[in-house]
Amino acid sequence: MRFSIAPSLLSLPLLAAAAAAYAGVNHQVTVGKDAKLVFDPPTLNAAPGDTVTYSFFAKNHSVTQSSFAQPCQPLAGGGFFSAFTPNPATDGSASPTTFTITINDTKPIWAYCGQTNGDHCQKGMVHAINAPTSGTNTFQAFSDLALKASTPSGSPPDGLPVGGLRKLSVIVGFNGTLTYSPNNITAPPRTVIEFSYNPKNHTVTQSSFDSPCQPLDKGFSSGFIPTAVSPSGVTFDIVVPDTNPIWFYCGQIVGTHCQKGMVGSINAATSGAKTLEAYIAKAATAPPSTIPPQAPLGGTITVNGTVITSFNGNSLQGATIPPPANPAAGNASVPAPGTPIDPYYYGMAGGSQPSNYGWGASISDTSVALLAFLLFIEDVQANLLFEMHSRLDNGSWASVYPRAIVDTLGSMAAQTLVQRSTTTDCLTHFKKPLGNQCSFKLPTTSVDDFLAAALKLNLLEIGALIDGITQVPLSDSYLLAPLASTIGSKARMTAVINMMQNHLAAAAPREAVMPAQLAWSYVMTNYVSDPNCPTKISGMPGSPYPALTVTDKQVTPDQSRTTAVTVSFDSSASGDKWVAWMGAWGDLEFTPLAADKTTTVPADLYGHVWIAVVSKKDVAMKDVPGVTVAGPEIVWVSQP
Ligand SMILES: *[C@@H]1O[C@H](CO)[C@@H](O)[C@H](O)[C@H]1NC(C)=O
Ligand SMILES: *[C@@H]1O[C@H](CO)[C@@H](O)[C@H](O)[C@H]1NC(C)=O
Ligand SMILES: *[C@@H]1O[C@H](CO)[C@@H](O)[C@H](O)[C@H]1NC(C)=O
Ligand SMILES: *[C@@H]1O[C@H](CO)[C@@H](O)[C@H](O)[C@H]1NC(C)=O
Ligand SMILES: *[C@@H]1O[C@H](CO)[C@@H](O)[C@H](O)[C@H]1NC(C)=O
Ligand SMILES: *[C@@H]1O[C@H](CO)[C@@H](O)[C@H](O)[C@H]1NC(C)=O
Ligand SMILES: *[C@@H]1O[C@H](CO)[C@@H](O)[C@H](O)[C@H]1NC(C)=O
Ligand SMILES: *[C@@H]1O[C@H](CO)[C@@H](O)[C@H](O)[C@H]1NC(C)=O
User: What keywords sit in the KW lines (predicted)?
Assistant: First the structure.
């Protein structure tokens, strides 16, 4: 499987939105090519949703929207204007600046070059889109009006681009050189400067004039963009905010790029003390370069059309490094907790762990215990999901599910790794131990067994999180957002698994609260092969509760609902016993367990519920672990 920037659970809505938008045709128009005062083609037809891109040649042209009646004056009430685009090239090449408009309807659009030095418009340098081919308002009629127009031509008084995208392309590391091309940029505010990366491993980072090769506070930085291919498909876009000079450099220390002159400026003075030449000279003797620890900042990184909002650090490793030879080959490839994760998996997960956590000054013992429990259960999940994905992707179950489902499961596996990293990062940050790693006994027989285990692990984690999140002290409130987001992520996963399981929609999983001790016990009994593992988690019982098995079910005549269950468990505890039912939305009910170990299902329970045999009834959820005799186990009480 190959998906370095993969559709994932997180990005699906985004992809759907992108697909819904009409991808129009892009029409190209040259402005003043071959030293001629013409737009080529002078007139064209375009549909709503299409774009038209103007590229500018020597000398110094604009494309400005007018009315039909006044060809050389800006459209009253505001039309588009590219701003003037001088092109000093003497070899006839296009300016790195282009201007792109989007066509919104089929009405005629009239335009001209506003250059007064030589009266370009009055010499016939005009242009039209969707001009009528007959009647009075033809392109020929417009062109004739321009030849007779009075001088001088008009332009929007502020001189700034409007009504379209003015973009200046800068090549980073052209042909292996330590350069930005161009490096000496003049661009009006609102211009997008687009940096395109080439080998090997460059940054575009803003500095002040006085401290070249050091990041400017609140300035932009692309981060390191390592690439072996040219063009890489990676771009960094910034928008020129005003007319103040902007200074930037490459922060690569290997080869001292900045000091060797890999720097540039936007709107620098051409004389005086602060010219680009002066900045280059200052950079030559600057101390070793640094860049901010996070990227991208102050601009947008796009990889072959996909926007990357955040890297894990300041280097775009994931998108350019090929995936590991065997990315999902079962439990052997799941990295141990706390070890670095191959960036390939961040792509698979549709995002990395947070680069900036906003942790508080301290962490309570309660929260540490909760995190230790999460690490434990997320580690089992990661191992299960990777093994499952590997079999579905290219193993014994390769043809069981459609590719989209297999990829979604792969994304879930990768997201579980990211969640586990967030947990270990937090424990490590507060210098708390990660404990030892367990070996697992995972179901091996069928896809259905795997799905059932994946679902149970998700439901156990959701249940324990809903319970645990209420016990996080206010001093650890920084934990609430990641914990709540994990609940959301696991809830999405249960929905996907539920669809794969072919159950009726009515049985869709809902969230049942589950004390962490019971969840821990279930995982220990069912999925952990080494009973001394993991290292004791604070608050957990000394050993797992005895296992609980459902041996019989009574159902309604139409078999649509379970009305009673018979259980078996291994316990010598004497006295009356009850079954505690833990259902959706925090429901907790108790039914007496008869001598034959049968009990009736509460009438108002539906879907997945967890049960435990207890020695005392009507206790609060937090007190259930203290009275548990055996369990828990999951039961379907409505239509399976
Ligand atoms: C380009 O033309 C505009 C309009 O005539 C003028 O204001 C501007 O100074 C010119 N730029 C250059 C570099 O010649
Ligand atoms: C099309 O609509 C957009 C959004 O309102 C506007 O910015 C743009 O200028 C319009 N294009 C033209 C050619 O008028
Ligand atoms: C790229 O660099 C090579 C080696 O320095 C040189 O021979 C070649 O002419 C350069 N190509 C361009 C387009 O500058
Ligand atoms: C890119 O350069 C940075 C800084 O030297 C380094 O940390 C990173 O590992 C490099 N990436 C690659 C793929 O070489
Ligand atoms: C972008 O696409 C090009 C062409 O398919 C490919 O060579 C390049 O590796 C891609 N870039 C990344 C970063 O994946
Ligand atoms: C930058 O361009 C200006 C003119 O626009 C020129 O005077 C100056 O020498 C150039 N500087 C460099 C370093 O190319
Ligand atoms: C996990 O790894 C062990 C040891 O390499 C192997 O025996 C087992 O089959 C793998 N898969 C599962 C599902 O346990
Ligand atoms: C599937 O696995 C086999 C053996 O490991 C390998 O040769 C093959 O290339 C894999 N196919 C895909 C599509 O990854």
Answer: Signal
**In this structure, what token pair is assigned to residue 58?**
């020597």
- Encoded amino acid at 495, one letter: A
**For residue 206, how many C-alpha atoms fall within 13 Å in the half-sphere facing its CB?**
20
Atom of ligand 2 nearest to the CA of 104: 1
For 192, the 3-state DSSP assignment is strand
Residue with CA at minimum distance from ligand 1 atom 11: 86
Cα angle 105, 111, 116; round to 5:
160
**229 alpha carbon, closest ligand:** 5
The pLDDT of residue 333: 64
* 3-class DSSP state of 600: strand
Cis bond before residue 632 (omega within 30° of 0)? yes
The alpha carbon of 415 and the centre of ligand 8 are apart by a number of angstroms equal to 23
Return the closest-CA partner of residue 31 out of 97, 77, 122. 97
Containing 260, the helix (H) or strand (E) segment is: none
Q: Which residue among 197, 224, 249, 289 has the greatest number of ligand 4 atoms within 8 angstroms of its CB, and so is best to mutate?
A: 224
Contact 550, 567 (CB under 8 A): yes
DSSP string, 423-454: HHHHHHHTT----PPPPB----S-HHHHHHHH
More confident residue, 343 or 45: 45
Residue type, 64: T
pLDDT given for residue 35 in this prediction? 93
Contacts of 107 (CB under 8 A, 6+ apart): 130
Instruction: Express each pLDDT in 212-227 by its tens digit.
Output: 999 999 999 999 999 8
Ligand 4 pocket check: which of 315, 320, 342, 344 to mutate, most ligand atoms within 8 Å of Cβ?
Answer: 315
Ligand 2 center from residue 110 Cα (angstroms): 14
Q: Kindly list the protein residues whose Cβ atom lies closer than 6 A to any atom of ligand 7.
A: 330-332, 387, 442, 444
pLDDT of residue 566: 95
